[in-house]
Queue: 2 jobs
Job 1
Amino acid sequence: MTAPDAAMQGSITLIGGGPGDIDLLTLRAVERLRTADVVLYDDLAGDEILSFANPDAELIAVGKRAGHPSPKQQEVSRLMIGYARLGKRVVRVKSGDPSIFSRADEEISAAREASVPIEIVPGITTATAAAAYLGTSLTKRGVARRVQMITGHDVDGKLPENLDLSALADRGATTCVFMGKATFASLADKLIAHGLSGDTPTVVVESLGSPATAVMAGTLKEIAARLATAKPAGPCMILYGEALAGLHRDEE
Ligand SMILES: C[S@@+](CC[C@H](N)C(=O)[O-])C[C@H]1O[C@@H](n2cnc3c(N)ncnc32)[C@H](O)[C@@H]1O
């Protein structure tokens, strides 16, 4: 990168890459990829999405590829702003929807502080894509009147300590747990201690949008025990609540 030129105005666009199936990308996301000068992408965004990128665009991996640690969030923001200040149209591809557990807030703040225009193109979050894959609805009249999305790990990779367990043990809600496969057993223990039945229907959808998609379905207790031993390698969306009743089967 060379010195910034105040006369050149670049931009940053955060696009939601959806769950991995490229036909679930929005037309706007495809259009931004086609006109990008620089594309920053990470592991979960999926390589196929990059086939839509302008062939002359510079493609920069910012995820944990090939065993290398991922660049720190500040470094990603610095890169995006640096390129935008060179007049480049920078596209940052996020998995699912950028507004959900993607640290988009930090990138938006960094762009605003640097006075770089930033646009957000929404995508289909893995939570709703998982429901679609399962052929079910996350809400159900009279059964599930509320949907909540939580992260199963804090900055140390542990189960967050300040979870609202009363809300999470609400029988009338469907809960979508992101980044929760390693901590689900301890979450399940806490939920049961807060009154949620160990028989609550629970489903894990692993590696959605890829040929390796796998489904594990059972009760809260069963799935907690199985995740603790099976240790799935791919990203997992865990859904629990009465809306998931009837999905007591596994699928690969
Ligand atoms: C950093 S969060 C990103 C969430 C994303 N912004 C969204 O809206 O889906 C990563 C977590 O999302 C879920 N996830 C992302 N891609 C997935 C996929 N292809 N299959 C299953 N879960 C996925 C997993 O829970 C994973 O640990």
Job 2
Amino acid sequence: MGIGIIGTGYYVPSRILTNKELESMVDTSDEWIFTKVGIRERRIAGPHEATSDLALKAAQEALANAGVEPEEVDLIILATSSPDMIQPATAAIVQGKLGALNSAAFDVSAVCAGFVYAMTVASAMMQANPQYRRAVVIGAETYSRILDWTDRTTCVYFGDGAGAVVLGQQAGDLGIQKTFLKNDGRGAGAIRYLGGGSRHPASPETLAQKMHRFEMNGREVWNFATTACPLSVRQVVQDAGIQLSDIDWIIVHQANINIIRHSLDELGIPLEKTYTTIEKYANTAGASLPITLAEAHAKNLFRKGDKIVLVGFGGGLSLGAVYLNWGMDYAGGQKALVQQPAVVGDWQKN
Ligand SMILES: CC(C)(COP(=O)(O)OP(=O)(O)OC[C@H]1O[C@@H](n2cnc3c(N)ncnc32)[C@H](O)[C@@H]1OP(=O)(O)O)[C@@H](O)C(=O)NCCC(=O)NCCS
């Protein structure tokens, strides 16, 4: 038997923050953000919504899509770099809220590659131990809580949201065929959020200023991402013994539309073979892959047997890819269970 996706779901908060609104907050412009990054707007979690709340709604939708009850879940793995709290794991909080009380639950911390890491761990555990028959793999983030909203070099890029898949057994020629994971810790300082047990050589005063501040070296990340993305795709395709031209769909981490264009161009993969959500949800870090995959599935883009590559890269510097053969029949898309009408407004005052 193989291990594959048997349900997908996603949730984005209803509140929209447009580039136009950002123009009144920092020295930026809609044109700069759209041209340089490909974003028009992003979603911001409501005052009472934690990362676990977004994750819960995505997981509920994925379970409904799969026709699986919470008690039937054996494993929950959640990828996040903006957890509810340092401990316990956000997956543990989600497990309790979901009522999936027969499952193990833990978080994976690999920032924007977190979802491919979590998929890899979940499928390996399921292959190794048949006790794990159904897993929920979630990517969920609330970067609005960790961003510095006065820093235009970081705050314009990110948004909040969550996506989830249910993994279950499928025929061996369907489901996850190969995975590839890597990290280059020499670049661990390129994207970071100091907190928890971090040590810093600076004075306590400087440390206090630096703590709880999200930092990103945009140029370094660009150089890394435009190398890591093609490298990961080539590696997983080579390991699987298929050709780049065999790929039907490639879902890329939604960091920057220009990184996606640049990478696909280098790989010789036409843009028609990808699906993007960055223009409306921005970079949702560990959540961007499952959100984009779930929305593409809801739009009925995939056919059974389609060869799909998911590729992630980001803080760590982490990178990786999952190659799978799509194993689901289209069942009318996800229930519009949790998607609420979008609201534009003064989110910071709520
Ligand atoms: C950050 C990035 C867009 C910069 O692109 P670039 O073409 O190298 O642009 P530059 O760094 O030359 O900056 C151009 C100008 O825009 C300015 N700028 C930076 N942020 C800005 C913003 N939000 N709005 C307006 N102008 C901005 C810069 O200060 C610079 O001004 P200057 O020429 O007067 O110095 C690009 O490096 C990138 O996409 N990096 C990856 C970021 C990413 O994806 N992060 C998520 C990782 S998972």
